[in-house]
Amino acid sequence: MAMPVLVPRYSAEEIRHFPDDRLRYEVIRGQLFMTPAPGTWHQRAVRELQRVLQDYLELHALGEAIAAPYEVLFAEDTAVQPDLIVIQNDRAQQLDDERFNGPPSLAVEVISYSSKRTDRLEKRALYQEEGIPEYWIVDPGERRVERWTPSAREPVVLADRLHWGGAPGVEPLEIDLVRLFEKVQAEPRGTP
């Protein structure tokens, strides 16, 4: 008779006490996920997207964009740190001094070599199950964005322009993805 393999289960509270060792610790339905510190393209993409989203949200008084590291808590055994979240005013009551509780208005993950599987499988399934209205998987290497909604079976893949409707009656945000990825992949300053 085969013996069952016991896999440790973690809680959000447990991972909050893990060491600060440049790894991002997340837990989804009790399963632990660790991601090493991201690279340059990743960080540039997060910076540029946060900038454009925050400018749009402030211009229309719709809410705010917060970048990782920042916890989004769904349940005692499920806490993640999306690269970027948007919290619109109608969800502001879910925000406290330490974390965001429940699904944000938008979650964004910028994939890197070490996060591709988690971002496309486990996190996508979680974000869809939790009813996040939109989830963007940003792939700087492929220069594209996969847009997921809760009921989607396949993503809408965008490489030219991305439109995001912040609120009814407000002109949607338009992101020029070609320009965004040019900035992300630009040579470092000082390079001949």
Please describe what this structure looks like.
With 192 residues, the chain is of the alpha+beta class. The protein has a single domain (12-184), classed as tt1808, chain A (Alpha-Beta Complex). The protein is built from four helices and 13 strands. A hairpin with a 7-residue loop joins strand 10 (144-148) and strand 11. The model has no long low-confidence stretch (mean pLDDT 92).
Classify the beta-strand content into a percent band. Answer: 25-35%
CATH architecture: Alpha-Beta Complex
The SSE string, one letter per element, is HEEHEEEEEEHEEEEEH
Q: Briefly note the structural class of the backbone.
A: alpha+beta
Form type: globular
> How would you classify the quaternary structure?
single chain
Q: If you compute it from the alpha carbons, what radius of gyration comes out, rounded to the nearest whole angstrom?
A: 17 Å
CATH fold node name: tt1808, chain A
What is the strand tally? Answer: 13
Helix segment tally: 4
Strand order, main sheet: write it out.
3-6-8-9-10-11
Unreliable stretches, pLDDT < 50, 5 or more residues?
Answer: none
Bin the helical content. Answer: 10-25%
Domains counted in the coordinates: how many? 1
Q: Could you give a short account of the major beta sheet? A: 6 strands, mixed
On the 0 to 100 scale, the average pLDDT is 92
Our measurement of the CA-to-CA distance between the termini, rounded to an integer number of angstroms, reads: 66 Å
CATH homologous superfamily classification = tt1808, chain A
Q: Tell me, what is the CATH class?
A: Alpha Beta
